[in-house]
Write the structure tokens for this entry.
Amino acid sequence: MSKVHSPLYALTRSRFLEFVRQPEALFWVFGFPIIMSLVLGFAFRDRPPEAIPIGVAGESRSSQLLDALQHSSRVKPERFASIEEGNAALRMGRIALLVEDQHPLVYHYDPTRPDSRIARLEVDDVVQKASGRTDPAPVQDVQVHEKGSRYIDFLLPGLLGLNLLSTGLWGIGFSIVDARMKKTLKLMTATPMRKSEYLLSHMLSRFSLVVLETGVILLFGVLAFGVPVRGSIGLLVLLAFGGGFTFAGLGLLCAARTQTLEGANGVMNLVAIPMWLVSGTFFSADRFPDALQPVIRALPLTALNNALRAVMLEGRGAAAIAGALLVLAVWAAASFGVALKIFRWQ
Amino acid sequence: MEAAAVRTPQPAIACRGLVKRFADVVAVDGLDLTVSPGECFGLLGPNGAGKTTTIEILEGLTKPDAGEVTILGRHWGTHERELRARLGISLQETRFHDRLTVFETLDLFRSLYPSGRDPELLLSDMSLTEKRNARVGKLSGGQRQRLAVACALAGDPEILFLDEPTTGLDPQSRRELWDLIEGYRAAGRTVLLTTHYMEEAERLCDRVAVVDHGKIIAQGTPSELVARLNAPYIVEFASDPALTPESIRALPGVTDCRQRDSRWFVSVASLVEAVPALLARLDREKAKLLTLSTHQATLEDVFISLTGRELRDE
């Protein structure tokens, strides 16, 4: 006699097996976020500050000025045969500043261009020092290249949140609509199975994958880009579960009444795309108008993204993410409750 | 069957005055039915007759617009969970998850019932042991249907509902499934099935109800229904030139005749009267007899005599 499992365990296990036996689903869960972070991480990787292109023209009395400018790493001088040529390059934006080499020196530049104004300061600094200026106040530079403030550091927690949203919606939505179309859903309701157990099994089967997918993406970010994890791993796991559960609930809700895969896809896009845009995945949600902020902050992806960043980048503790967990819990409870009420089993 | 009804006063399945409308179509139109415990009862009728709607109302999956259903003395509204645990249901054209194995699927269904049969034993009963670890997506139609019946039996049900269990199967798979259903019945359990195969109803069912346009137009044992025809025999013949319907109807004991292709199918009360008369008639009309055969009337003939239409196998 083989062991008889509890319905909830058996349903959850079946969901899990169905999912992991789909190679394409595994790609979207694991491969896609990694490719996305690779592409975006390289596109926005850190580069040393670039030297500003400037021009030098006019009758040179000596090579002293050009030598001094060439030794500066902050500007990249180019010699022009005439003032006219130099001015043309300036107008085209090829150089930020033209130095007319005469006495006194003349700086040609457009003060509305920020790089031109910086070039003016840099060039003048070089010229004055080369002419023997001594600065009365001693200063020291400390250059900051801190990890945790780069774009990839901002992006990776957002990608984690986004991935939890996508796999929750599509992973569950498609599976339910497929079961409805094949009538297995109807057949299940012809057994003594509790309907809530069926829906709960979908949410629980997501749990087993949530840890895996979050772990893989996080590990990739740490190894490939050195993204910092300053807060506790335990809180990250808690957030991953919270997000996974909430978005699974939204997936249930999206699939509660839809009869076709196309219909479900449409509903899920309708839910997901606004959150992709406003919830601070690719850029900060603070950029949206103040009037929209209460709505944006109430969205589950915003709460999750902000909490993931607070833990990973700022090393904040449980108190800082309690609000986000509450937002997620409310969404999860509401989605599950409404889904169970309006769910179409046949 | 009457003896069984007396022995157990409470019917396994009973319904009265069932009505179900879909938009402007009346699928079930005032249907009454009683199935006794231990009986195999067949709902027989063409596609669209209302068989599936009827069985799904009895299964508690569809709510009727009117009428009352009693299963094992219980009502769906008050005892749904208890009934679910005591019934086994196989729907028409269910597809299981392709990526689960046969055993995983059956094991899942078993776990949904509070008590039931060992999946390993069920697999061997259903001749599926060889396919135990095969993905459901790789099964043949017959194997898939056997798995569906196995899942319906997972909770060791008192009543088994089968909606067109053998539709689309090859004759070999169909016979295998019949054996399985007979095996289940041998343990004294009740079966309600729908079919549009006459052969299936005659082989499996103690009683059948002929359903047409959402109503039962006749019911009884298969032999009763056939006997109720005034003409229990069919004479099938072709001649050159063909006889006219009038001349065929004029033969003694003929109740009905119909033509398919070039053959005539004549319902007669007595072969010994009708066949010599037919031969004499052909002789008189100088018609040459091309084929001649006779058989006992079947449920197919019952259906045709009741509705004037043929059941379609497709």
